[in-house]
Design brief:
Elements lengths: L15 H8 L4 E4 L4 H18 L5 E2 L8 E6 L5 H7 L13 E6 L4 E6 L2 H16 L8 E4 L5 E5 L19 E2 L2 E2 L4 H12 L4 E3 L7 H4 L7 H12 L4 E5 L4 H4 L11 H17 L5 E4 L16 H12 L5 E5 L19 H6 L10 E6 L23 E6 L15 H8 L12 H5 L10 E5 L15 H12 L5 H13 L3 H21 L37 E2 L19 H6 L9 H4 L2 E2 L10 H24 L7 H33 L11
Parallel strand pairs: 1-2, 1-3, 3-5, 7-10, 7-16, 10-11, 11-12, 12-13, 13-14, 14-15, 15-16
Antiparallel strand pairs: 4-5, 4-6, 8-9, 17-18
The structure holds beta-D-glucopyranuronic acid.
Length: 685
Amino acid sequence: TIGYEAWLRYPQLTDVLRIEAVSRWSGCMIVTEASEVIATAAAELKRGLERMLGVTLAARSSCDSGSGCIAIGTFSGGNESIARVFGDSGAQLDTGAEGFAIRTDAESGIIAIGAEQPAGVLYGVFHLLRLIATGASIDELDIVERPVNTIRMINQWDNIDGSVERGYAGQSIFYENNTIKSDLTRVEDYARLLASSGLNAIAINNVNVHHHETYFITERFLPDIARIAGIFRRYAIKLFLSVNYASPIETGELTTADPLDADVKAWWKAKADELYKVIPDFGGFLVKADSENRPGPFTYGRDHADGSNMLAEALLPHGGLVIWRCFVYNCKQDWRDRKTDRARAAYDHFKPLDGRFMDNVILQIKNGPMDFQVREPVSPLFGALPATNCMMEFQIAQEYTGQARHLCYLVPQWKEVLDFDTYAKGEGSYVKQVVDGSMFGYKHSGFAAVSNIGDNANWTGHPLTQANLYGYGRLAWNPELSAAAIAEEWTRLTFGSDEHVVSTVVSLLMGSWSIYESYTAPLGVGWMVSPNHHYGPDVDGYEYSKWGTYHFSDCKGMGVDRTLATGTGYAGQYREPNASIYGTLESCPDELLLFFHHVPYTHVLHSGKTVIQHIYDTHFEGVEQAEQMLRSWNELEGRIDTETFKLAGDRFAEQAEHAKEWRDRINTYYLRKSGISDALDRTIY
Ligand code: BDP
């Protein structure tokens, strides 16, 4: 099916010179090791090359010189061709546990992909295939790559009933009707997609663990979970499970889940032993506790260090990890108490606990203090926990950014977050160095993100939002890659090398975040979405409810005062100079103005426009740009397959139409609230 193979299509090369250049190295594949992951690597290399070249690639254990071969293996694994190309240097290449080296050795006629571990060999194979598919020369390769982040994880928000929380691309590929699917072919194909983009860990069930999923860690489900773990293992991906903090109670075995209770501790220890018997390389637990009505240690007057350490102790003998989410806030806010500002919550809860977590606990922090809005400041927790392992949580699923119906390429947003300067150790203390562990010497750290796939034929619903999944993996591997480079790489792999297609798709992707931002909630204030499903405009949808997601618009002005002096004090959670930059009206960047300040509609931005005129202008412009996206896409007719052309075309049409609804709802609202008319006197409904 179109789109099913995503960026692993490997279309046959058509340029004669190119075919010749690659064929020179494709006499055979030299593979000698028996490991499961190396077998996967060999199968991938075979599949990719055979497709691109239209030949059959034989696997041999040695090379009859002169034929031009590709050797794959670990440095110490006994593959003579690997030893021949890398000599003794292999071990010194510093490829680490997951990195690889690729070298073209003209003398022996071998391209060698070597690594310390089988996983590195697999990543090396995907890298070589990517080079070939995107048109790079392979005649003089001398590459050493290693991932910057050690944990590169995907979180599935899949439920055992087959639904996917915040899923916009169909049902689960893992579950249906309260069982684990018997046919897991798609899970295997998903593992390929993840590994090929560099990912190495997955939590396969929703962080909201309901009654049924509580039993994932019991004998009822464990044999099937082990089956899934086996699939991912072949792709060097570790399996994690989200667990219900109240499991001992929910399963009916104990009457408490108090982390300091001896029976509770023993229960989890026994549970861990049971799990590792079935899945010896089990990754660990992902936990959402005391958040949005999920159970947690607060019930027993314990804090989150007590809560997570108890689980960590159970997993420790087996080398397992506890990934503990910081998305903890009061979802029944009383707005009169400004200190309960939802934006403050994660920092207020976790900052005081710094240093109290065990070494195998990692705090998973959402990129912003609220919840995956199109624009938020960076969570002030990054850089504030020098003595606690931390990792990033992004959301690939576009819950608040168009839900696979609108195009919103999120890599540029993630890049901004990663490049944010926390000043934790003076100027140049970037978030990416916090999450890769280097800033504070964390024992464990990295990236996690909520997946955007489902059982739609093309995985992600909108054909172009596959780029978000791919881009996430590439960025987790190397946060220095540019958003544009990733976009181009993905486009070439997916659509081939028609330059008109490449430049159009790349510019559609690169412009899309800013376009989405311009016709939705303005200047960082966020929300304004329909409650519950979060699609489409509803300016006051959450305004008069308990969730703590306000914009405070009245007839005079709008925005949330989060300054130290007169507001909630959230701005003070940042280190200087960020605290002052955000906390001072004059220096606060325009795009976050309404996140930090309540201002009159006539307040003049750095751009020279008033807030109200900015709202009108961006909403009119956003619609024009969304319409332009549709026209650009339509120009690709005939250059890409008709099914994808139509599918994406329909989505672009819907986006352009829907952007008008956003524009009209927001502009009308602010015209009526402010009573100030548009300087350009355009029609506002
Ligand atoms: C919010 C989602 C909700 C999730 C929650 C979370 O609306 O469905 O359960 O985040 O991250 O974005 O736990």
